Amino acid sequence: MVRATKGKRNTMNQKKARAHQKPIEGHPPEWVININKCIKVGPQYDCGKWWTIYRVPRNLREVHKNAFVPKIISIGPFHYGDPGLRFMEEHKVRYLLRLLGSRTPEKGGQAEELMSQVHHATLLEDLEEAMRELEQKTRRRYSEAFDIDSNDFVQMMVIDGCFVLELLRLYHKFEKERASILMSFSLLYGYPTENVDDPIFATRWMLRTLQRDLLKLENQLPFFVLEKLFELISMAEDPPRMLNPEGEFDHMLEVFRSTFLSSLKQNITPGSEQLKISVNIPLVQERQLVHSVTELEEAGVELKKREDCDLLDISFQGGVLKIPPLYIDDNTAPLFLNFVAYEQCEDGKPFFTNFLMFFESLINSSADVEILHKNGIINHVLGSDQDVADLFNKLGREVVYDLDECYLSQQIKGVNNYCKAYYASKWRVWFTNLKHDYFSSPWTFFSLLAAIALLLLTTAQTYYTVYGYYISS
Fold first, then answer.
1. 3-state secondary structure string, the chain?
2. How far apart are CA 213 and CA 404, in angstroms?
3. Alpha-carbon Rg of the chain, whole angstroms?
4. Backbone angles phi, psi at 441, to 5 degrees
5. How far apart are CA 99 and CA 223, in angstroms?
6. C-alpha–C-alpha distance, residues 61 and 64, integer Å
7. Cβ(74)–Cβ(219) under 8 Å?
8. Which residues make beta-bridge pairs with 302?
9. Do 288 and 408 touch, CB atoms closer than 8 A?
10. How much is the pLDDT for 168?
């Protein structure tokens, strides 16, 4: 340990000495030589345009560290070799062997067994060769350069990719053997299943944790890696299957994100065009987000649950704000934050960023959550409504957003105009306060009636008392 420390110190001293060393006459300084080497290497130093898998921005990581760091498994190079994630390496190799051995004949002689071994060896060599051809293309997809040996990098691509594919294959097997409703329930909440003979599926907590880890931005392989592995593995089938016949995706996180956007992309127009519709409203005023739920309710906005649409498909028309139901559990925040982190790094439509900031504006307190829950918009399994309010108030921290790119800009403008018209009329404000204070429940209404009756009786008693006094006089 001491020797290593001294070696590092000597290296640092040598670098400092070279940095302060005067250039030899007739020779360019060292930094010029280094830049010239970079120019000769070529376009790999300008590969940012190919990035699709990113390190989570530091500002987000500092606020929500647990949402981005995998708990039990490392997929890809960002957390490669992490000592805390070695637990799953044995399962990765076991899944690779299982995937290769899935074509082993259950019964047969030595000839069949030898043929099977040759087939498995050939398939593994094909996988290794294909991944080696894709190694440089794969490295360019990450926002950082990794000091991982070429052989180790290719091995990581094969083992991690085959693990993901075999896990998906087992899910598919389970889907075919169980009813679709029970299948969805088990996969979402990680309950053990009876039809998949595997320790991961038989362990109550492991599926749930794997679900979180495989949907983290830093825990991804490029989707073309999975597609190529799947193509080679399924070549023996007739006809060969494709991993995803519709669309092109960067990675599994984007695939899952796209499932929330199917109808939304067809119904929206760019946010900047929506903002230009109302030229009479100042841009500074237009950029404000919506009022809280309690303020919207006071202003007469009706909140309703919207059925049969995507999660992000929010609408506002005629004073009615319709929001699809949102279920909140321990998986919700990490999933949304990884969607947001991907959108913060990628040059695309920030749908989940806008959605998250919209809800962060709606919810300021437990009273807001209570109203949304009563209207069927929010259901949660957290401790209390205050916990949900604290969660949303924290999710919006360190998130960069621009209403010019917001797919909800039209809805936000409509809600704010509706509230502005309400607060401009004092009579409507007074009437709403009266209705809120005295007609919010039967008990307050009956109390108001009792108070009015008591006031009338007191007035009548006073009148007759004074009237009798004057008559007697």
1. CHHHHHHHHHHHHHHHHHHHCCCCCCCCCHHHHHHHHHHHHCHHHHCHHHCCECCCCHHHHHHCHHHHCCCCCCCCCCCCCCHHHHHHHHHHHHHHHHHHHCCCCCCCCHHHHHHHHHHHHHHHHHHHHHHHHCHHHHHCCECCCCCCCHHHHHHHHHHHHHHHHHHHHHHHHHHHHCCHHHHHHHHHHCCCCCCCCCHHHHCCCHHHHHHHHCCCCCCCCCHHHHHHHHHHHHHHCCCCCCCCCCCCCCCHHHHHHHCCCCCHHHHCCCHHHHHCCCCCCCHHHHCCCCCCHHHHHHCCCEEEECCCCCCCCCEEECCEEEECCEEECCCHHHHHHHHHHHHHHCCCCCHHHHHHHHHHHHCCCHHHHHHHHHCCCEEECCCCHHHHHHHHHHHCCCCCCCHHHCCCHHHHHHHHHHHHHHHCCHHHHHHHHHHHHHCCCHHHHHHHHHHHHHHHHHHHHHHHHHHHHHHHC
2. 33
3. 32
4. -150, 160
5. 19
6. 5
7. yes
8. 320
9. no
10. 86
pLDDT tens per residue across span 388-436: 999 998 888 888 877 777 888 889 989 988 888 877 765 555 556 655 5
Omega of the bond leading into 239 within 30 degrees of 0 (cis): yes
- pTM value is 0.76
Cβ atoms 306, 326 nearer than 8 A: no
User: What is the C-alpha to C-alpha distance for residues 199 and 281, in angstroms, rounded to an integer?
Assistant: 61
Tokens representing residue 383 in the block: 């401790």
Return the number of other C-beta atoms located less than 10 Å from residue 245's C-beta. Answer: 6
Q: What is the pLDDT of residues 164-223, one digit of tens each?
A: 999 988 877 766 665 444 444 555 555 544 466 788 887 878 888 998 999 999 999 999
400 touches 406 (CB < 8 A): no
